[in-house]
Specification:
Strand order of the largest sheet: 1-5-4-3-2
Strand content: 15-25%
Number of helices: 6
Number of strands: 5
Oligomer: single chain
CATH architecture: 2-Layer Sandwich
CATH superfamily: TT1751-like domain
Order of helices and strands: HEHEHEHEEHH
Structural class: alpha+beta
Helix content: 40-55%
Radius of gyration: 21 Å
Largest sheet: 5 strands, antiparallel
CATH class: Alpha Beta
Length: 169
Amino acid sequence: MKRKNVVITTVIAFVAGIALTGAVGFFSMPSLMMLEDESPYGFETTVDAFEQAVAEGGWSVLQVHDMQETLAGHGHDIDAVKIFELCSSEYSAEILALDDERIVSPLMPCRVSIYEKSDGTAYIGRMNSDLMARPFGGVISEVMQVAAVETEEVIAEVVNGDVQVAESD
């Protein structure tokens, strides 16, 4: 009887441990999947510094979505938000050239957002591409991880104040 109680207690503890681990993982996932850094600059200067750092890093800005302007056209008043679509032709071509790897094309191009919070502070937000890449394995993982490192280097230049831009705010 005592051995049966020990087994039941062990099974319950094991199941509870798995459930607790799952709950912690589930609730911490958003903070792992998305990254945010405060900019030392105002919004417009952050945008200028970011665009300059992207160009110097050898990447291209394919599109900029001005969400404040777009939503204003629909009667909404929000703080400044610009979403940048970034591309490295080298990395994009490496993934898109392979049939089985094209499945990740909805994640392309890389997106980085610069936004202003209600206190007037500018932030740079983006998906944690390094973490997102790992489960794919193979070429996708390799390419996305290298691209993530380069993107983070560009962002670090901005948030560390290493980009020389004229203050426009």
